[in-house]
Amino acid sequence: xxxxxxxxxxxxxxxxxxxxxxxxxxxxxxxxxxxxxxxxxxxxxxxxxxxxxxxxxxxxxxxxxxxxxxxxxxxxxxxxxxxxxxxxxxxxxxxxxxxxxxxxxxxxxxxxxxxxxxxxxxxxxxxxxxxxxxxxxxxxxxxxxxxxxxxxxxxxxxxxxxxxxxxxxxxxxxxxxxxxxxxxxxxxxxxxxxxxxxxxxxxxxxxxxxxxxxxxxxxxxxxxxxxxxxxxxxxxxxxxxxxxxxxxxxxxxxxxxxxxxxxxxxxxxxxxxxxxxxxxxxxxxxxxxxxxxxxxxxxxxxxxxxxxxxxxxxxxxxxxxxxxxxx
Length: 327
Ligand code: HEC
Ligand SMILES: [Cu+2]
Known about the structure:
It is a single chain. By secondary structure, this protein is an alpha/beta fold. It has two domains: about 35-130, Sandwich (Immunoglobulin-like); about 145-315, no CATH class. Helices cover about 30% and strands about 15% of the residues. The strands form three sheets. It has a four-stranded mixed β-sheet with strand order 2-1-4-7, with no helix packed on it. A hairpin with a 7-residue loop joins β1 (about 35-40) and β2 (about 50). Heme C binds near residues 233, 254, 266, 287 and 299.
């Protein structure tokens, strides 16, 4: 008899108390946060992309996005709000909540390679402030490539080529204390200047290239962050080994419509001629602005300045080896 009562108690616990408490919790949450709920659908671009792709809210308003992904797994990142969910599974609803404190345009994007057109899966939250209906346009300092008057769509082959892959770890052994600016100059420019200077006469060409590789990785970029962003956002087109053979990049025109002798498709980052001939400002400029019709997306609206320099530094690891950052 006692046992039966106990069993009944257990059953009641599962059938009544547990669901009731869950239900109560949901209701409590809804009440407590008192947010404006907006349903958002995440679909691959072929199935309509983000719906809605433009979300209008008021400054100071608590907003909850209730996101479902009917077709395949998606993710969402709203960088300016620090919101990130890397997995929205079909059949599940993911909720994110935020309060904006300033009027403006906050871009968001999918974080998963849901289809070949994944990178088109972008949207924006428009935050308006009724006290300040006329938004002043933001003032930007011109990016380095504009200040340096670099044409992002020109070919930029290196004039000097190393006979072997430059190595930062070999360069570290040389005691060449090279301090130079890799943002404004290509490695090829740096090599030409060193070769012309009598101070480096004792070094072979290969040694100078190693010294350059070593000096390059002495800056403050975070290679781990660069590697993470590359794997998430770039590898599907540029290939995991950086050779330009990613599945999502196969049919892209690249710069062939301007330069018919160039290869179509995404840039091969293991091509030393291409990479040694480019300054960091050029690479960052292309990432910031995108290719304008070549198939290369723009990342300036989603990445912080540091994100872009970090991913540029990571791109260098395809031409320079031994990128051990410890001094
Ligand atoms: C949808 C495919 C695609 C994705 C995703 C993509 N790229 Fe590209 N990228 C291209 C294509 C195509 C080109 C060549 C045409 C051009 O230069 O505009 C290119 C060119 C570039 C160049 C120019 C290189 C040079 O020497 O001029 C850089 C730098 C670059 N991509 C970096 C990146 C980074 C970093 C990411 C990830 C944050 C990325 N790309 C994501 C397709 C892509
Ligand atoms: Cu997606």
